[in-house]
Each structure stands twice: as structure tokens, then as C-alpha cells.
Amino acid sequence: MEETLEKPEKPVGQKKPKLTFESKGRTVYYQLQDKIFKYFALAATSLGLIVLVLLLYSVFSSGFDRLDWDFITSLPSKRAAKAGIYTAWTGTLWIMFLTTIIAFPIGVSAGIYLEEYSSRSRMSNLIEINIANLAGVPSIIYGLLGLEVFARFLNLGASVLTGSLTLALLILPIIIVSTREAIKTVPYTLREASFALGASKWQTIWNQVLPASVPGIITGVILAISRAIGETAPLIVIGALTYVPFAPTSPMDEFTVMPIQIFNWVSRPQKAFAENAAAAIIVLLSITFVMNAIAVYLRQRSQKKVKW
Amino acid sequence: MRKGEKIIEAFLFGCSALTLLTTVGIILVLSFETIGFFKDVSLIEFLTDTEWTPLFSNKRFGILPLLTGTFLVTAISLVVAVPLGLVIAIYLSEYAPGWFREIVKPVLEILAAIPTVVYGYFALVYVTPWLQEVFPDQIGGFNALSPGIVMGIMILPLISSLSEDALYAVPKSLKEASFGMGATKLQTVRNVLIPAAFSGISVSIVLALSRAIGETMIVAIAAGQQPRLTANPLVPIETATTYIVQVTMGDVPYDSLEYKTIFAVGMTLFIITLLLNNISFWLKKRYTQAYR
After folding, report:
1. Are A59 and A74 within one domain?
2. Closest residue on chain A to B88 (Cα)
3. What residues contact residue B57 under an 8 Å CB cut-off, 6+ apart?
4. DSSP reduced 3-state for A118
5. How confident is the model at residue A17, as a pLDDT?
6. Could you tell me if A27 and A141 lie in one domain?
């Protein structure tokens, strides 16, 4: 900008604008300020990244040595060196499996209904506001709901089933919203073509709309499940145990999960248990990151491939 | 329409109505137990007493210490996350080259995908000892400062992402007009973009606030379990969420007064976050109307 001020193209019949010392100085000052801010902002952005690296480094440096096959296949123990995460990861797998089975069909169905069937009625408006609100409810409140309704009222106790039902309710809003987003990207012309061939509404949805939006839906479901396996608070509230001597073998068994095992180990004063926690965190983070990576990959692939 | 189609539609409707049932369930469960709680404890005591000791023999039921604990940690997290998140949002949307943005944005969002129990570990095992070195002899093993800072990192991507979207949504013509007047990028950001994106930015802050208030594991691990009415970030405190975890970890019989306290505390949390969420919806609606 300064250059253009110093060497302006001479407009016909106009005088070259005079630059006083003062105005030029101010321009330089503002530009300097801009530059300083730019580097300051770069530093702030790097700070965010550095903290992430620090966090990962802190976990890996103290947990990596502890991580071996025995650690993964051992039962929990009062002695830190002998303790393992077998019951924790089997519990997490159970929870993952059951939560998906419960939340996936319900969430996708609800998403389809809201996007394809519901007219702008007061009812669908209400449902929409409600879903947005549910997404903002703290997870620990879902725990209280699960404790009272599933564990106590339906008498399911602190079982895998209670945990899965609770987490399914927690992730339903995420699945519904992402299903709707995925369905929205399918152009209306596709539906019209299907209708023109005589297909019914459901035939159109089942044969055209859903296949076209599968990658988006799966992405959302994977992200939701990855959120569910990292949840700790609602499972503690429904009464999931911190010490379980056996791996669950049915949905009605008591259970623990990876995050609760980590919480239990972190809460102990001995350093050896903190190392166990770090090792367990490495396993949990690996699962979370792999799921997120798959989700991102699916999303990018579908964005590239589909051109309507 | 065929009969099968009707049945399918009814089923799909049922699934979406289930979300309504969830809300109704939450409200019913919380109200039911909270009403039971207020049969034994007066609302005035609950809101004004300055001590929270339901698990001791001398029972006092003032929620204030839990709320100050919650808000203390939340305030610290916002002090960390709001300036940092805003500067990052401005940098990524206005200054950073495209390739940098493409890489950094998803990497920062990893922060949001990390389970909160991992942040709790980081706060207790790394940040607290580090703070103890910086302020020797002043800081306890449990305190509000360390989980506050770490929680700030956790909500950072929420603020930076949503604020960046808000900055991005400002019409290009406004920006170009400012550049055309000879303003630098910083001047444009300060005088045009931030005022124009203000409601979007406040939505991100309110959502982050609501998330921080409901956050459980970081504070349960690193803040302690001593409800106390203080604004001192260096001593152990207890948040509302931690109290619920503390009680449910122990063996408290159903229908005891202690059992009911967690629902009264949960109800308080629910009302606060519900209010905040609806403020954010209202702000969002306002700003989507502004530049259509």
C-alpha cells in the first residue's frame, strides 16, 4: 500500500497527493502493528499445537514402557506391576457393540423422518429444538437418567445393558444430526427421477437416498461411537464398578470400561499406578484416533467421489 | 398410500419422538427426586447456606460452595480459551496460508476428540506438579487452577472453530470495503470483522461455557473433593459434577437423603446449562438473520 502511495499513477488533472510526515508515519505504525499481531497470532496457534504434542508426549513417555502383551491380557490387581486392562477393554468392546446396535437404527430412522417426512409442523419444530437442547445437556445428567430409569426402575442394575442404553441416548442427537446432514446433500432431482419411475416414497428413500448418503451417515456414527467409548461420568453415575474381577459375558453382567479403569488408577497416589493409567490411555487414545481417522477418511473420500 | 408405507412412517416417527421422551425422562427423574429432597431441606437453605456437608454427621445443604467451585474452574478455563481461541480463529481465517489452515484446523480438532479422563490425567500428573514448581509451597496437590487451565485447552477448539465460522460468514464486501479504505488486516479485523461476527463469537463462548460447567472428569480427578466457598484457585475445591461422581462411587442406599442430593445438584446443573444453551440459540438466530 505504501508503494502505491509513493508512486501513484498520475491521474489526469489531479495533483499527486501530498504525504506529510505524520500521515506516512501513522501508516507505517499500523502496518507494523499488523505484522506484530500476525506473528503473535502464529505463536498463539502454535501454542495450541504445542500443548497437544506435550499432552501426547507426557502420556507416551510414562506409559509406553508399561505397555506390553501381559498388560493387555491381565486382570486388574492390587499390585500395580501385575495389573492389566483385560476386563476394561472387553467392557469397552461390549459397550461399543451394544450402544451401536441400539443407537444406530433409532438415530438413522429419526434422521430420515425429520429430513424426509416431517413437514414444517409445530411437532417437528419442537423435536428439532429438543434435539439441539439434548446435545447440550451435560453427560453426567444422562447418567442420572440411566441410574433412575434403567438401573433402578427397570431393575437392570449396573449392567452392560444399562450402560449401553444410557450412552445410546447420549449419542442419539449426534447420529440424528449427522444423518440429516448426509441426507440433505442428496439432490432432489434424484428423488424426482425415482418418483417418475413409479417408486413409492419409502422405495425412493431405501433404494436411492440412503445408498447415496451412506458414507456421511457412517462417518457420523463412527464419531458418535468414539465419543461414547471416551465417556466416563455417566457410566460411573449408573454404578459401573471400578474393580471387576471378570470380563462380562452377557449384557446383564457388571462391567468396567477403559476410562473408568484409567480414572481409578489416576486417583491412586502411587506412581506405578499413574504409569498404568498412562499405558491404558495410550490404548484408549489409539482406539479413539483410529476411529476418528476412519471417519475423516470416509468423509473426504465421499466428498471427492460424488459429484451430482 | 400402501399400508406398509404407513407402518414405516409411523416407526420412523416413533424413533424421532423418542428424543422427546428422553427430555421428558430427564425432567421427570430430576424433578421427582428433587421434590423429595426439598421435603427435607428448604429451598432457602439450599440456595443460601454457605456449607455443603451432606455426607458428614453435621449435615448442611448449601449449594453455593459447589457452584462457586464450578464457576471458579469455568472462569479459569474461559480466561485461557477465549483470548487464545479468538486469536487462533482470526489467524486461521485472515492471515494463515491455505495449506497451513488445512493442516492446523483438523489437528486442533483432535483436542476435542480426546476423552476427558485423559485431560484429567494430564492436569493431575503434569500440570499440577509444574504449577507447584512455579509457585512453590502455595499450591495444593488438588486445586482449581490446574483443571481450569486444562479445561481451557479442552474447549479451545470449540471456540476457535465456531468463531472462525462466524468470521468467515461476514460478507466479503464488508471486508473489501475496509481494505479499499486503506485499512490493514488488523484494523479490518478489529473494526469490521469482530463487530460483524460478534454474535457468532458469543455463541461459541456461551457453548464453551456450558460445556465447561457440565464437564466432570477433569475436575473429579484434579480439583479435589472439598466443597468450599472461595475464589482462591490454589486450594482444593469441589464442583457440582464432582459431587455427583463422589456420591455415586460410594455405597449410598436408594431413597436416602444423600441419594436425593445428587438429583438436586443435577437439577441445578441442568437448569444452568439449559439456560445457557437457549441463550446461544437465541444469539445464533439473531446473527443468521443479520446478513442474509
Report:
1. no
2. A45
3. none
4. coil
5. 56
6. no
User: Can you tell me the distance from the alpha carbon of B71 to that of B21, in angstroms, rounded to the nearest whole number?
Assistant: 30
Q: What is the predicted ipTM?
A: 0.92
Total domains present in chain A:
2
Look at residue A30 and give its three-state secondary structure. Answer: helix
Please, which residues have CB within 8 angstroms of residue B43's CB and are 6 or more apart in sequence? Answer: none
Q: Any idea which residue has 461399543 for its cell?
A: A96
Min Cα distance B168 → chain A (Å) is: 17
Is residue B36 located within the same domain as residue B133? no
Alpha-helical runs (H) found in B91-127: 98-113, 116-122
Residues A89 and A219 in one domain: yes
What is d(CA A87, CA A68) in angstroms, rounded to the nearest whole number? 16
Residues A106 and A240 in one domain: yes
Q: What is the pLDDT of residue A244?
A: 79
Instruction: Supply the pLDDT for residue A1.
Output: 42
Domain boundary pick from A21, A36, A65: A65
Q: Give A306's DSSP letter.
A: -
Tell me: do B88 and B31 sit in the same domain: no
Task: Give the model's pLDDT for residue A4.
Answer: 47
The CATH number of the domain holding residue A277 is: 1.10.3720.10
CATH assignment at residue B94: 1.10.3720.10
User: What's the CA gap between B117 and B124, in Å, rounded?
Assistant: 11
Q: Are residues A231 and A84 in the same domain?
A: yes
At B182, which amino acid appears?
G
Which grid cell sits at B210? 456450558
Residue in this structure with the C-alpha cell 420412523, named with its chain if needed: B12
Nearest-angstrom CA–CA distance, A158 and A148: 11
Positive or negative: CA dihedral B66, B72, B77, B83 = positive
Task: Answer yes or no: are the C-beta atoms of B291 and B166 closer than 8 Å.
Answer: no
Q: Which of A27, A124, A125, A148 to mutate to test the interface with B (most CBs of B within 10 A)?
A: A148
Q: Are residues B147 and B285 in the same domain?
A: yes
- Residue carrying C-alpha cell 499390585: A79
Are the beta carbons of A56 and A124 closer than 8 angstroms? no
Integer Cα distance of B13 and B7 in angstroms? 10
Q: Are residues A54 and A85 in the same domain?
A: no
Domain that holds residue A271: 69-305
Residues A262-289, mean pLDDT to the nearest whole number: 92
- Please indicate, yes or no, whether residues B142 and B281 belong to a single structural domain of this protein: yes
Determine the distance in angstroms separating the CA of A181 from the nearest CA of chain B, rounded to an integer: 15
Q: How many domains does chain B have?
A: 2
Whether residue B123 lies inside any domain: the answer is yes
Flag if B19 and A285 touch (Cβ within 8 Å). no
A305 to A188, A212, A308, B262, B268: CA distances (angstroms) = 19, 11, 10, 50, 48
Contact B277 A136 (CB under 8 A): yes
Residues A169-224 have pLDDT tens digits of: 999 999 999 999 999 989 999 999 999 999 999 999 999 999 989 988 999 999 99
